[in-house]
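Chapter summary example.
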Amino acid sequence: PSVYNGALNFKGKHGFDGTSGNYGPFVAINANNVVDQTGQKSAFSIDLEQVLAWNPQIIFLNPENMDLVNEQYTQNPDFFNSLQAVQNNKVYTQLAYNNNYTNVEIALADAYYAGTIIYPDKFKDVNIEKKADEIFEFLLGEKLYAKYTAAGQGFGPLTIGK
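The structure predicted for these 162 residues follows.
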């Protein structure tokens, strides 16, 4: 399936248009990132009409920036409601892994979570909460996933506009 990742942080917070080609978690699992078609190899702001033209089957968004995405929704609900991923309730979280430096543990957890959504048969044995804690404990010495979920930053489905 085709996928899009938006609301990325780079040089500050961004709404739905903040995206990235060569997005590490997607590259790690060989996901079909529609943004790779641009040739961009890092984060940038994309024209929303291009996202509509691609009409990705699955969308991942940074939950930290849903205030900006929801503001964009208020200004242009027809755009969002035209996307098949929105129509089919295929919008999910991806945690921000770049914050002053790359947090490899979060990028790895993001890849596993994206895998469970994009390739459910291949990742059917992955319990994302346990896998994230396994990664966090191995790299940071502590299970931290509960802290992310308590802060509203856990993995799960999203509803744009709410």
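To summarize the output: The beta strands are 2-6, 18-20, 32-33, 43-45, 58-61, 91-93.
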